[in-house]
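Now for one protein, fold included:
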Amino acid sequence: MVLTAATLFAINGVVAKVILASGISSLRLTEVRITGAAVGLVAVLAIFRRSLLRVTWRELPFLALFGICGLAFVQWLYFLAIHRLEIGIALLIQYLAPLLVALWARFVVHRPVRKTIWLALALALFGLTLVVQIWEGSGNGLDGLGVLAALGGAIAFAAYILLAERGVQKRDAVSLTAYGFVFGALFFAVIQPWWSFPSGHVSEHVSLLGNLSGHELPVWALMLWLIVLGAIVPFALFVGSLRHIPATRASIVSMFEPVVASAVAWAWLDESLDPVQIVGGAIVLCGIVLAQMARDDPLDEPPPV
């Protein structure tokens, strides 16, 4: 479930970069993604599983925190980061989140995080530095606002993982994700009302860039992908996975996303992919496998955070 979600998130990053090139801001794109996902998930539940939409007043503060500080901020800060940085560098910074999750588990809630998990995390982070080749930077240096957005995204991503793990103890993954999107959508509707949305961009046709620059699609079609396969499906899969594996391991497995993102950027945007990056991807995969192997040893299995 996590690997599938990571793959969809990776493809979504390139799709988002194409949409951002049309002139839509990262804030507006986040609002479209979250609001569309909220409408879609609530509609599906209302038709097929209405009972899952039942909620108590006591749950609302937690759902609001999950939707705003988790889902909304993760997406907005990520879009802002990839708009100002290369996708690989933005993802490397954002994927400090698994380290933050492990540190929270060990030093804040005092849960044991065994050596196998720490080793898996170190391997994955080292592999990511090779994948994105952080030492090369960019021609004009790293954009300061982009780096801050990526760091903020790492904190928000860690909060999302920890909040989701707590939330699935009381609710199913689909309704938890749905309510998270609802509160995220309400948050953005307040800070940037829909009546000011630049609707003229939606009907425009944009180039798909890179190796697909000869092809165009309407912005609304790309937004539809962003909502369904870039938000509803991957977020529900990731939240659902936390019923089966703890947050520390799920966050490490999710580091598969930058590896796929680099491959997609190579195939689609014609970005470089050299032997060092391929070795880095293999090291990330070794870290993921090691994290999964930890479940076979009870001493290395961290209890739920």
